[in-house]
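Page 37, continued from 36.
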């Protein structure tokens, strides 16, 4: 990997950790909705200073990449655990990767890491060890057993809440997304 080609994509946890943005020596990117999740004064100040210094670009991922990120989350079965903002972070990383840059997503979210691993995009956790296994999840109705591949609140077959998933594939992960 060519180090000069590396950029960081930040989720909210990366911004919320005190002084996180001050340690990065690479260009950083995030989405507008991630910045809206930063509410505390200290993190907001760090965010604003970093934007003034032009070390953080706010980019809205295109619809094409949002669809690709959503499809990847469905493929891994993580779609139930990811918010719309999480999908945006994954989509932005995909978009940047397709522009020929090497993105590393800074996140402590295990579901985001799992989808990134599936997509072949590097990640780096801040306060956690990161995922130890790539997992493919199956989303199912606990009452009738119907399998789902998309985000839903209730089963369209029996009306039960869709809160269950089980692992159908595991693969040991070495390192945090391949490292930086």
């Amino acid at each position: 990997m060519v180090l000069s080609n590396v950029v960081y994509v930040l989720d909210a946890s990366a911004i919320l950790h005190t002084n996180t943005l001050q340690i990065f020596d690479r260009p950083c990117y995030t989405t507008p909705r991630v910045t809206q999740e930063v509410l505390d004064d200290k993190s907001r100040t760090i965010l604003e200073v970093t934007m003034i210094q032009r070390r953080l670009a706010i980019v809205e991922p295109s619809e094409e990449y949002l669809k690709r990120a959503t499809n990847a989350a469905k493929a891994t079965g993580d779609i139930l655990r990811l918010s719309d903002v999480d999908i945006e972070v994954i989509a932005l990383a995909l978009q940047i990767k397709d522009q020929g840059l090497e993105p590393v997503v800074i996140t402590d979210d295990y579901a985001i890491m799992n989808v990134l691993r599936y997509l072949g995009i590097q990640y780096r956790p801040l306060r956690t060890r990161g995922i130890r296994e790539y997992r493919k999840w199956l989303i199912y109705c606990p009452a009738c057993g119907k399998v789902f591949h998309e985000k839903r609140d209730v089963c369209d077959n029996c009306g039960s809440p869709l809160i269950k998933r089980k692992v159908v594939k595991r693969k040991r992960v070495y390192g945090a997304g391949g490292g930086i």
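The chain has a mean pLDDT of 83. Flag for discussion at group meeting. The domain at 3-130 is CATH 3.40.50.1010 (Rossmann fold).
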